[in-house]
Design a protein that fits this description.
Blueprint (H helix, E strand, L loop, with lengths): L22 H4 L22 E9 L5 H14 L5 E7 L2 E9 H11 L11 E4 L8 E5 L21 E2 L1 H7 L5 E5 L3 H6 E3 L13 H14 L3 E5 L4 H12 L3 E5 L2 H8 L7 E3 L1 E2 L6 E2 L10 H5 L6 H10 L6
Parallel strand pairs: 2-5, 6-10, 7-9, 9-10
Antiparallel strand pairs: 1-3, 1-4, 2-3, 8-11, 12-13
Length: 318
């Protein structure tokens, strides 16, 4: 399976119920990333800090020693780089951020591991420092969606679609554009014409697919799937193909689409939620003014997510 470089939720899975629609989303239309860095053209408001996301499905049999190396690198760089990194036998997934020189040094340290020498990173811009601390977690799998025996290491046909080809794909009548994210993320922003499965947790997504698979197959539909950075789609695409579905996935996810398509707002409605202190970015990968309170609203089902966001950003209102 091709390596890719992005991340969705730090815990890889939870999805949610309702969220307050953003002003941007109400306004209407306007696998693998192949560039090592996608922040090579600075935005006008670029400041000292940058955000870097990455993942790779690859066999890792030494996660304890790798975790120790990553924590030691954090200390060696003066704790300047924070973030969340997941390690599992099936690979690595992470999002980190900090001052640009320290961030580059941490990326280089990641690539010192032989299995991660070709690990690719996607950069975006920060006004707010995205993470305060670095957390390295060892888990049984990078993305858990409740189907035993499904691994990101399985050799599958390539289903990736470049951002340029994605634009044409999602405009076809024989395509179902499926958002593979949390319901509240969809409400904040999504591709025009996309379907919202409205699942509370990522583990509920397979049940949604199974409930609709026969209808899609009988109608001759191709399922064009996307998520924030690509990792969820990467792991699910093979399983969906096994269900007899014609599946395509956006290469590198939404973040890569924003990086590769200067006029991404032509296809994207609203903003994109990110799982760090910035909360949301626009189609130019710049932090917006959207707050956690605006994203989650007063829905009791979202109270735990709002509490988590406030823990990420102690300065958030309470």
């Amino acid at each position: 399976m091709p390596a890719s470089s992005a991340i969705d939720a730090p815990d890889g899975a939870p999805t949610s119920a309702a969220a307050a629609p953003s002003a941007a989303a109400s306004a209407g239309p306007g696998h693998s990333a192949h560039s090592a860095h996608s922040a090579d053209t600075p935005a006008p408001d670029l400041v000292e800090h940058q955000h870097s996301s990455f993942y790779k499905f690859v066999a890792l049999d030494d996660t304890p020693s790798l975790a120790q190396h990553l924590r030691q690198t954090y200390e060696r760089l003066g704790r300047q780089v924070g973030g969340n990194i997941l390690l599992a036998p099936e690979g690595i997934s992470g999002a980190i951020g900090g001052p640009t020189p320290a961030l580059a040094a941490y990326e280089a340290a990641l690539q010192e591991h032989p299995a991660l020498a070709d690990l690719q990173f996607k950069r975006s811009f920060c006004i707010t420092r995205p993470f305060t601390l670095l957390k390295v977690h060892e888990k049984p799998e990078l993305v858990a969606f409740g189907l035993p025996g499904v691994s990101g290491l399985e050799d599958r046909p390539d289903t990736h679609v470049s951002p340029q080809d994605w634009r044409e794909l999602i405009r076809r009548d024989d395509v179902v554009v499926l958002d593979n994210r949390n319901h509240f993320e969809f409400q904040l922003g999504h591709f025009a014409g996309a379907v919202d499965p409205e699942v509370r947790h990522f583990r509920d997504f397979p049940a949604y697919v199974q409930a609709h698979a026969e209808v899609w197959k009988q109608a001759g539909k191709t399922v064009a799937m996307y998520c924030t950075g690509g990792i969820r789609c990467e792991k699910l695409s093979g399983w969906m193909s096994d269900q007899g579905l014609a599946v395509r996935q956006l290469e590198g996810g939404i973040v890569n689409y924003f990086a590769q398509m200067p006029d991404a707002e032509a296809d994207w409605l609203g903003e994109c939620f990110v799982f760090d202190k910035r909360i949301a970015i626009d189609t130019h990968r710049r932090e917006t003014a959207t707050t956690a309170e605006q994203v989650y609203g007063d829905d009791p089902a979202e109270a735990w997510r709002l509490a988590r966001a406030r823990r990420l950003d102690p300065g958030a209102s309470s």
